[in-house]
Specification:
With about 900 residues, the chain is an alpha+beta fold. It contains 30 helices and 27 strands.
């Protein structure tokens, strides 16, 4: 059972002043202004230790471009990494890589409609390195040279970034661009830019934008992390407080045009779903801060309450809609509010009518006081949980909210204040205010867009028919909504507990053996103050299953996890989960099966009671089965429309020999998924727990951990009998020699290329680390040689897969210009094969070694790391230890890597598959 709600980012930003509560930026947020007018923000945060996230924010983006500058904001963002007065082209990136930062991860930037932000995550444990990193960031943003040769080179990379969004994505974007943004400045100035303007870029046009908007009064430095604030303030002043004589005029704010009632049907042969979107526009400026604050919390509650309506409709079992909800797009002074529904392609009219019925019911019948009270408590529990785990929040989760103080005049609030504000402002949110919002959404002028596959076998209404369906649906009287039970309590199961047989203490954990033979590893942590992780697993998974049972294994967990537990039925699961912060789920993958439970302390007992029912008294809801299978069958049927899915199938056919465990489920496969087969598969995996092992980790003391283990896990049916718990080896024989295949499908402006090299080295801990080093060095080299020097790709992703359960391989994926596909592919192969011949760049290797140290140190304070660590201890034995940074550095030397690199792949054994569009337009 899982709580079906997206995790709320609790570092929320807003402006308010209400009643006795005065909201302002906390004193912990240091705000200052340099003599040149540049603003700075410093916020001390504990996680990760000895790290700081730094942003340079510019209050300008694509909306500020002149007609001859479309795309300049984005191109400048790229060029700031490509040469400054002090550093030549690529030396900026090379410096950051030399201290262990990853380009694209620790070092990145983005451009929006009205902002451009440069971002680095940098260690603070070495002051010289830290200050050099800040000095380079200053050079990037304040001293770029914009040489014409660099401009010409970077244009190709920007075009490859643009190319990634072409094809179906571009066609969908154009629909939104026309229907939602037409007639406004937004409609003509999407951040990616106009490629015709980009291709003809001259330095003076670009420099005119930079000089106008990259002004200290229009910029800010933001630091969040483990750093002394006085020291941080001095560093900012040292590098960013330069003399500025230029005058600055603030930007103009732009608005969307009012929407009119429009009905649009967009059909495309590559679409794999039917989607209805009903969008309204509203003013996003407020008379006073009180209005804005109330609106903020009211909007969250509105989303949750509307989601309840959608869920209730889905649970009726008609399968007219498969999912739905509500989302906002907030611009400077406007907000777009959208209700969406994914509709059954065989019931499009019913799906549209159902969507209208949901909105009509919400606007006419509103919500009861009881339902609103439950949802208020639910949201409060989310904020309370966020507060309890505040100290585990990392810099990157906070810094975007801090920079909003500068970019959009917001106020930064930490978790404690958010809860305080919510408790105050939620008092004024009543059923009447929710109903008024629902009425506005229902009665406003809308842009209605229906997306559907262009398929003669699907009956899709035209625009006039769409309009008439909606109008007639609105004319029908609203149905009276069934009363819902919000007082759902899970009945306590009767459990005969077992006992603990022995406890042995190790350096980082304790090993606890239960009376039924199951072994658990226990570790108490305080990284998250109120979160407990429990994992129970057994090696094997579906590896020994027949094909019939393998197919059923792909669905059994989702069906049983959604069917309910004990007295909680399928239709009641979401209401039961209100106000609770836990998830529990079973899983069956290729080589392992088990359960994962994550909970706070308050709800842990309820989570464990659910686990008991899932193990002892499983529910297989017919309604859950019908809903999930109908949804999957439609997705499988529609896969034939997608060039990417056909491409994926071709790769599976060639490289994986169409092995059932590697290919996609087919429509015929789905006919083999029955309730009887699902029950058999679940029974085979979870009726006898002999050979299972477990982990209990997090904010749980030893006494509580022992109590949990005795009651819920020592009571499981298991024996001392030794079973073969190893997974069966999946011995797919990959193709030999050079193979080149093509899939010609779709309308696009890019070619997708995938290269597979079977890995020739044996699986071992040492070889895993060396293979990962090969992958990381190759990624750096490909960025240097193929992206930066050739301008042939935007992103490129090498990945080595190695497992003790199947044969390994190296896969490299990228997209490029169809006219350059041969050239770029050969360049990628050349770099790969050079590395496989032992040509190791010293700078690349040093960057990988330093990055390993950064990642390793950060991971020591993360529960995810320890969950993985303890899992490997259980699988590989108590002697297993991951490489420390010192051991990693000692083993990842050129001398020790070369012999492995020369054996890792055979350059004459490359399988290449391309997806080539049938046409570009």
């Amino acid at each position: 059972m899982r709580k079906k709600i997206s995790a709320f980012l609790f570092m929320i930003i807003f402006i308010l002043s209400f009643g006795e509560i005065k909201v302002e930026n906390p004193k912990e947020l240091v705000i200052g202004k340099l003599s040149n007018g540049m603003t700075y923000y410093i916020y001390k945060n504990k996680m990760p230790e000895n790290r700081v996230s730094v942003n340079v924010a510019v209050k300008a983006g694509s909306l500020q471009e002149d007609d001859d500058q479309l795309g300049m904001a984005h191109l400048i963002e790229h060029l700031c990494f490509n040469g400054t007065e002090k550093y030549n082209k690529n030396e900026v990136v090379k410096y950051y890589q030399s201290i262990g930062l990853n380009f694209g991860g620790d070092l990145n930037a983005h451009t929006g409609f009205d902002e451009t932000v440069y971002k680095i995550q940098i260690p603070t444990d070495n002051k010289e390195t830290f200050e050099k990193g800040i000095e380079v960031l200053k050079e990037m943003t304040l001293k770029p040279t914009f040489k014409q040769e660099d401009i010409d080179g970077e244009k190709s990379i920007v075009k490859e970034e643009w190319r990634l969004s072409q094809g179906l994505s571009e066609r969908i974007l154009k629909v939104f661009q026309k229907e939602l943004f037409d007639g406004s400045r937004y409609g003509k100035r999407f951040p990616i830019g106009d490629m015709k303007v980009i291709e003809g870029t001259k330095r003076d046009v670009l420099k005119r934008y930079y000089d106008r908007w990259y002004h200290p009064e229009n910029m800010a430095v933001v630091m969040v992390g483990d750093i002394d604030t006085d020291y941080a303030e001095n560093v900012i002043k040292k590098y960013f407080d330069y003399n500025e004589t230029r005058k600055f005029v603030p930007r103009e704010e732009y608005r969307l045009k009012e929407l009119d009632n429009k009905y649009v049907v967009f059909k495309d042969k590559e679409l794999t779903y039917v989607l209805l979107e009903i969008t309204g526009r509203e003013d996003y400026s407020f008379l006073n801060p009180e209005e804005e604050t109330k609106d903020f919390f009211e909007n969250i509650l509105f989303k949750l309450l509307l989601s309840n309506r959608v869920n209730d409709e889905i649970k009726k079992g008609n399968n007219y809609i498969f999912e739905g909800g509500y989302y906002n797009m907030e611009l400077s002074k406007d907000r777009l509010n959208t209700f969406y529904a994914v509709i059954n392609k065989n019931e499009i009219q019913k799906g549209i009518e159902t969507s209208v019925d949901i909105l009509k019911d919400f606007s006419i019948n509103g919500v009861s006081q009881e339902e609103l009270a439950v949802e208020k408590e639910n949201l409060k529990s989310i904020f309370e949980n966020a507060l309890r785990n505040r100290d585990s929040l990392e810099n990157e989760s906070i810094i975007s909210s801090v920079r909003e103080v500068f970019l959009n005049n917001k106020v930064f609030a930490d978790a404690d204040k958010i809860l305080e504000y919510y408790n105050e402002f939620s008092k004024g949110i009543t059923p009447e205010t929710i109903k008024a919002r629902a009425e506005k959404l229902y009665k406003d002028k809308h842009s209605v867009i229906l997306f559907a596959p262009d398929d003669k076998n699907i009956k899709v209404p035209n625009e006039e028919e769409l309009k008439n369906i909606i109008i007639k649906a609105k004319e029908k009287p609203a149905l009276k909504r069934e009363n819902q039970n919000f007082n759902l309590v899970l009945e306590k199961p009767h459990i005969i507990k077992g006992s603990i047989k022995e406890i042995n203490e190790f350096e980082n954990y304790k090993k606890i053996k239960l009376s039924n033979g199951i072994e658990f590893l226990y570790k108490e942590t305080d990284f998250e103050k109120d979160k407990i992780y429990i994992k129970l697993f057994k090696e094997g998974g579906s590896s020994k299953d027949s094909d019939l049972m393998y197919i059923n294994s792909q669905f059994v967990s989702e069906i049983i996890d959604n069917s309910g537990a004990g007295n909680i039925e399928y239709k009641d699961v979401e209401r039961f989960m209100k106000g609770k912060e836990f998830s529990i789920g079973s899983y069956i993958n290729d080589f392992e099966h088990g359960f994962i439970i994550v909970s706070n302390g308050k709800d842990l007992e309820t989570a464990l009671d659910c686990f008991y029912y899932m193990e002892k008294e499983q529910k297989f809801s017919q309604d859950a089965y019908k809903y999930i299978m109908a949804n999957v069958k439609e997705m499988v049927e529609n896969r034939k429309n997608s060039p990417n899915e056909i491409y994926s199938d071709k790769i599976s056919e060639i490289f994986f020999k169409n092995n059932i465990r590697k290919r996609m489920i087919s429509y015929d496969d789905l006919n083999l998924v029955t309730i009887e087969n699902l029950k058999e598969e679940y029974k085979n995996k979870f009726s006898d727990f002999t050979g299972f092992k477990g982990i209990i980790l997090g904010s749980v003391n030893e006494e509580k951990a022992k109590e949990i283990l005795e009651k819920y896990f020592a009571s499981l049916p298991a024996g001392e009998k030794i079973q073969d718990t190893k997974a069966e080896y999946l011995d797919i024989k990959y193709p030999l020699g050079e193979i080149k295949e093509e899939v010609i499908k779709g309308v696009d402006k890019k070619v997708k290329v995938t290269l597979y090299y079977p890995v020739k080295i044996e699986y071992s801990q040492e070889n895993i680390y060396k293979a990962k080093t090969f992958e990381d060095i190759l990624r750096i080299n490909l960025i240097d040689e193929v992206r930066e020097k050739l301008g042939g790709v935007y992103g490129i992703s090498p990945k080595i897969f190695m497992s003790e359960n199947e044969n390994g391989y190296l896969v490299i994926k990228f997209s490029t210009d169809p006219k350059r596909a041969d050239e770029i592919t050969e360049a990628v192969k050349r770099e790969t094969e050079k590395l496989a011949e032992g040509e190791i760049k010293k700078s690349s290797l040093e960057s990988v070694v330093k990055n390993y140290k950064i990642v390793y140190e950060d991971s020591q304070k993360q529960n995810g790391y320890w969950l993985n660590y303890l899992g490997k201890k259980l699988k590989k034995g108590d002697t297993y230890e991951p490489y420390s940074p010192k051991i990693f550095e000692e083993n990842m030397t050129e001398e020790k890597l070369k012999p492995i690199f020369k054996k890792i792949i055979d350059k004459t054994n490359c399988i290449q598959v391309r997806l080539i569009p049938e046409r570009e337009e």
